[in-house]
Amino acid sequence: MKQNMPHIAFIGLGNMGAPMAVNLLKQGYRVSVADVNAEAVSALVAQGAYHGGTPHQAAEGADAVITMLPDGRQVKAVYLGTEGGKGILDVLSAGALAVDCSTIAADDARLVAAEAVKRGIAFADAPVSGGTAGAAAATLSFMVGAETADFERVLPLLRAMGRNVFHAGGCGAGQTAKICNNMLLGILMTGTAEAIALGVRSGLDAAVLSDIMAKSSGGNWVLNVYNPYPGAMENVPAANAYRNGFSSRLMLKDLRLAAGLSESAGLETPMGEQARQMYEHFAADPQNGSLDFSAVLGEYLPQVLPRR
């Protein structure tokens, strides 16, 4: 561990948060961690992190806090508190930096930012793209909403965890960019799954068809790095019974956020809406909801899903 490195509190050690925290440790940062999953905390402590206890305890005395949480409700609860209780903004010192890497509504990000500013705390919304593989390899893309001076402060932290860091605009802009990105991702995944299913049902080998499309005009990110058909690509959730990825439940959450953003912008997004409806139907089954979002292929080819 390097001397005089900032103390970072990392809250939220799920499939994305845990490897992100590990990459901060690799860069020499002092990291205290907190999560409701005791095993996830123990795994980080074994790699050199400090057991932060509760989010409040982890944040006390920290130079910066990074959160990676499932939704806006939890983000607001952690930062602002619930039912009159204190949030971590109440224990961070003036001048500290708060970075939320969750994917939430832009309005929720702006609400937390406004409360942070009242306390002299810099805030940035910095949702990520790149999946669990990108989190592990420190190749994530960050879409940042922050004031320019705060963006400059957050850059070293984000570069320790990712490859591409974009300043999308002021607070909330990072979330808007992420919601647009994930709406497109949902469209690409459902469309790619549909095309592969059509080929398989018509007698083609999924891997051969995927290779043809990837090198032709249908090529896209899903075909290149995240194929949804089991056996067509190694080291993706489809090769691991759709486990340990970006859950269908979370994709549905993001597509719902996109629907809300579309409504507030007064713009119809029919392809995004079709993708949302697909995930609404697929994730209505709780077991499906916990599977990686590429498992939506099972809407067309049920036999690819894990046996129950």
Question: Summarize this, please?
Answer:
With 308 residues, the protein is an alpha/beta fold. The protein is built from 13 helices and 9 strands.
Approximate strand percentage? 5-15%
The value of Rg in angstroms is 20 Å
Number of DSSP E strands = 9
Biggest sheet details: 6 strands, parallel
Q: Helical residue percent?
A: 40-55%
- Calculate the terminal CA-CA distance, rounded to whole Å: 45 Å
Strand order of the largest sheet: 3-2-1-4-5-6
How many helices? The count is: 13
Order of helices and strands: EHEHEHEHEHEEHEHEHHHHHH
Q: Pairing-aware structural class of the strands and helices?
A: alpha/beta
Given the C-alpha coordinates, what overall shape results? globular
Please describe what this structure looks like:
This protein has helices spanning 17-26, 38-45, 55-59, 72-80, 106-118, 131-137, 148-159, 173-201, 206-214, 221-225, 248-265, 270-283, 286-289, and strands spanning 7-11, 30-34, 50-51, 64-67, 97-100, 122-125, 128-129, 140-145, 162-169. It has 308 residues and is α/β, with parallel strands linked by helices. The strands form 2 sheets. The chain has a 6-stranded parallel beta sheet, sandwiched between helices. A 3-stranded mixed beta sheet has the order 7-8-9. α7 links the parallel β8 and β9. One of its GO terms (biological process) is branched-chain amino acid catabolic process. Belongs to the HIBADH-related family.
Features:
single chain, about 300 residues, alpha/beta, 6-stranded parallel β-sheet, 6-PGluconate_DH-like_C_sf, 3-OH-isobutyrate_DH-rel_CS, branched-chain amino acid catabolism, EC 1.1.1.31, NAD
